[in-house]
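Backbone-to-sequence.
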């Protein structure tokens, strides 16, 4: 397929999705993050677009979304959108994770707002000369006030104490955009609006953004 023909087909798809959204959708504010702080601040809004979201990619609007499902398919002209952009409107806050050729654009529904900090570790000698311990010190702020999907995992983690009957610590699957210049690693901390602290236990960076697992801290 020639580049020109491909571009014509893709343009026709965007026009068709946009025309359908003009009838079926409603206006959403489109935000493009700049830097690492508050991507949906008023100064980050770049447009208002008509969109609608469906739980299925065929746009039949025949089935509701269910528990534990953050993925939606966007009906609308996404030609002016970029992966990582946010959409804010009556149904909530979403961010675009996939804008693949000739496919339905994919968004993630946000149900939490988190900041990401990196604990700074200072090393000090223990009781033995070859034994070192970690001491909590200042924390480096990596990301501030980012809407994300934070959903419970299928089970909890056993507490480190091993005391019988002690409640498992809940763990979460977190979907988050990947801003330029930020490289998350295990043991970074997520802090939500309620002050809960979650320790990142696994990091997967893809062209869709970050997929993390995180365990809620006991304290």
């Amino acid at each position: 397929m020639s580049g020109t023909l491909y571009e014509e087909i893709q343009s026709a798809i965007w026009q068709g999705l946009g025309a359908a959204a003009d009838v079926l959708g409603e206006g959403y504010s489109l935000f493009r993050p700049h830097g690492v702080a508050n991507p949906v601040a008023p100064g980050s809004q770049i447009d208002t677009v008509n969109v609608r979201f469906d739980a299925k990619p065929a746009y039949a609007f025949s089935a509701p979304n269910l528990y534990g499902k953050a993925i939606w398919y966007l009906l609308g002209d996404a030609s002016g959108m970029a992966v990582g952009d946010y959409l804010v409107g009556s149904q909530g806050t979403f961010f675009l994770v996939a804008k693949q050729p000739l496919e339905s654009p994919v968004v993630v529904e946000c149900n939490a707002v988190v900041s990401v900090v990196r604990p700074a570790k200072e090393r000090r000698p223990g009781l033995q000369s070859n034994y070192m311990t970690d001491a909590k010190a200042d924390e480096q702020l990596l990301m501030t006030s980012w809407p994300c999907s934070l959903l419970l995992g299928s089970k909890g983690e056993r507490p480190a104490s091993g005391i019988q009957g002690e409640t498992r610590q809940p763990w979460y699957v977190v979907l988050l955009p990947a801003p330029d210049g930020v490289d998350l690693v295990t043991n970074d901390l997520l802090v939500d609006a309620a002050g809960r602290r979650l320790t990142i236990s696994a990091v997967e960076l893809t062209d869709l953004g970050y997929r993390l697992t995180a365990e809620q801290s006991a304290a």
